[in-house]
Automatic annotation (TrEMBL), chains A, B:
Domain called HTH lacI-type: residue spans: 7-62
GO function term, MF aspect, one: DNA binding
Gene3D superfamilies recorded: 3.40.50.2300, lambda repressor-like DNA-binding domains
PROSITE patterns linked to this entry: HTH_LACI_2
Annotated InterPro entries: HTH_LacI, LacI/GalR-like_sensor, Lambda_DNA-bd_dom_sf, Peripla_BP_I
Keywords (A to Z) from UniProt: DNA-binding, Transcription, Transcription regulation
Classification of source organism: Bacteria, Bacillati, Actinomycetota, Actinomycetes, Streptosporangiales
Highest taxon listed in the record's lineage: Bacteria
Protein name: LacI family DNA-binding transcriptional regulator
DNA-binding in keyword set: yes
Organism for this UniProt entry: Salinactinospora qingdaonensis
Length: 344, 344
DNA sequence: ACTCTGTAGGAAAGTGTTTTCCCGATGCGG
DNA sequence: CCGCATCGGGAAAACACTTTCCTACAGAGT
């Protein structure tokens, strides 16, 4: 309790009557052995004094920390919190601490957070989100990632290809294509799409996959049946309002993610339309928290928590092959009550 | 790039032709002034070399870090992720980094995480969760908290009273009481309750508040109409199954949190019962993500994100009065479609 | 002119670990 | 019985900063 409430290794060493070096060797038990007697004395003293190593000092001396970063857009979004849960689990298994950074969907903030983590000598970072088509921000982020890896850290991304890092990426295109096939098989011929932001790859890929399946089936998709909007619940609500205001003849509405689809269903309900009787609705992601919506949402299931785990594992693997690995995960179409055979 | 990819303050100082001290003073610009010329030279060199301060070294030298801890049971639970979002926002506003720890509802893990944060010299910690009636774990946690504050950190709790720390606590009892009044006013006389875990104060208080309101209104609550179970979606589902299996004459089911209520509604649906026609259902919390359930859930609204923000603000306030502050937040009853006038 | 004060800059002493040397003792084969 | 490697232990040098203390100097007051 001498200097401000801390007990240092020095004090432990003195209390045990050994040198600083010996105390250090006992209390993190690496490379070298220390005799049974002294070992006992040291552990006893450490326990008695309530010694707790100073993590910063250790990080400084070892030049490697026990921190692993996690960067998401918005932790309250269940998509990200599911991934976060997976990352947290793996980090914990490794005895590491996760540092949570939220960007609020500001690209520049990703860079700031990454350099903050670099300053902390974080061992690894999991970057969840989605790239936009803005090449310059992607390039800057890539640069930041390179600096991070240069300092001995590893980076893994979820759902963002094209960066110099390991990646776990859902096959958005194939998932959307498969979903389209199933909906066509159900009898739908006239579709509308809530396509999310125009500049987000995740949204674009899902749109493209769906669109190309329609095209292959000889189904036209009128431009006025494609609505862009924010990638959030409220974005879905608002996009739906616009779609309805403009008028649509679709029997099925594909929404590029579940969170937006939730807003869409709310908007349809508010507009007095029944799902699926008046309009079928399908989403993407299969967010666990949203599985209890009624009608239950037809969607493409992604193993979000597993994706977080996998990204964390990649980021923490010792594998030093510099070629970035990519793990592609397939989505599984889950037909539920929100889509039905069209009546008209 | 000399030693392993880092550029140190030393290198910046040499490059700028000044002393280490001067470089330090320029690059964190506190207490002392340094002349315009040198200041320019240093910043220029720092920029040119791509200098990034070593956070561990700074923490060590300053004996205070930029870390703030956040301890939750499960980040995938929307209750906690909402709180987390609030904490993250405030931490970010203060230029701090949040360290996320998840306990998986293991009390002991809270202590581990807290001491980990102590080892990192974290500035503050927000502890979200709920105390159980197990006094010994509470006492141990209190002890750990005291050690943390002794080292100059601050701790704020969400929803856990009786700890030596600032607290943001919803008035669970009053909220449940008010909810009961409203449901009674709606015409309900026979209730069932999914009461959650027996040992969790949050669950107990809500049960008690509801129960005492019934009692005051002269309404009996038969023991077989109170089901205990896990504080999760699946716990709600399973509790409901048991309730139905045992048979109930209730017209209204009060579930002590929204996440459980979600499971309850699913179980009722699976059992062919309609909400609210066959049975009204009410929850507690008003989880944002669950507001789009149908029928929309009658519940008691808690400003979760605000609670997280407030806890973070308390934990980061400079106010050094050692008397722990308590901020009590009232819940607001929100009647929605899941409860209706009973027909039988 | 001479002290006095305030200020800009640098040298060096922490900050709490880890780790590299170095040293003495012990065990062992030749 | 003597070198020789090994092994347990300690002194001290990093690690990358912050901060105290000291010095030189410029301007001001008498």
């Amino acid at each position: 309790m001498a200097s401000g409430g801390y007990v240092t290794l020095d004090q432990v060493a003195q209390h045990a009557g050994v040198s600083l070096a010996t105390a250090s060797r006992v209390l993190n038990g690496s490379t070298r052995q220390v005799g049974e007697k002294l070992r006992r004395r040291v552990t006893a003293s450490a326990h008695e004094l309530g010694y707790l190593p100073n993590a910063s000092a250790q990080t400084l001396a070892r030049n490697t920390s026990t921190l692993v970063g996690l960067i998401v857009h918005d932790i309250a979004d269940p998509y990200f919190s599911s991934i976060a849960a997976g990352v947290a689990r793996i980090a914990e298994d490794h005895g590491l601490v996760v540092v949570l950074g939220t960007t609020g969907r500001t690209p520049q903030r990703e860079n700031e957070l990454l350099s903050m983590l670099r300053a902390h000598r974080a061992r690894a970072v999991v970057l969840a989100g989605s790239r936009t088509i803005d090449d310059s921000t992607t390039r800057r982020l890539g640069e930041e990632i390179r600096m991070f890896t240069k300092q001995g850290g590893r980076v893994a991304c979820v759902s963002q290809e094209g960066l110099p890092a390991d990646t776990v990426v859902p096959d958005n295109r194939a998932g959307a294509t498969e979903l389209a096939h199933r909906l066509i098989a159900q009898g739908h011929r006239r579709f509308a799409i809530l396509a999310g932001p125009t500049d987000l790859y995740t949204a674009r890929d899902r749109l493209d996959g769906f669109h190309s399946a329609l095209h292959a089936a000889g189904i036209e998709l009128a431009p006025h049946n494609v609505m862009h909007g924010a990638f959030t619940r409220d974005g879905g609500y608002e996009s739906t309002r616009r779609l309805l205001a403009a008028g649509t003849d679709a029997t099925c509405l594909f929404v590029v993610n579940d969170v937006m689809a939730t807003g869409a269903m709310a908007a349809l309900r508010d507009a007095g339309l029944r799902v699926p009787e008046d309009l079928s609705v399908a989403g993407f992601d299969d967010i666990p928290t949203l599985r209890d919506l009624t009608p239950a949402l037809t969607t493409v299931r992604l193993p979000l928590e597993w994706m977080g785990e996998t990204a964390a594992r990649l980021a923490l693997s010792e594998d030093n092959s510099d070629a970035p690995q990519t793990v592609e995960v397939a989505g599984e179409v889950v037909l539920r009550e929100s889509t039905a055979v069209p009546t008209s």
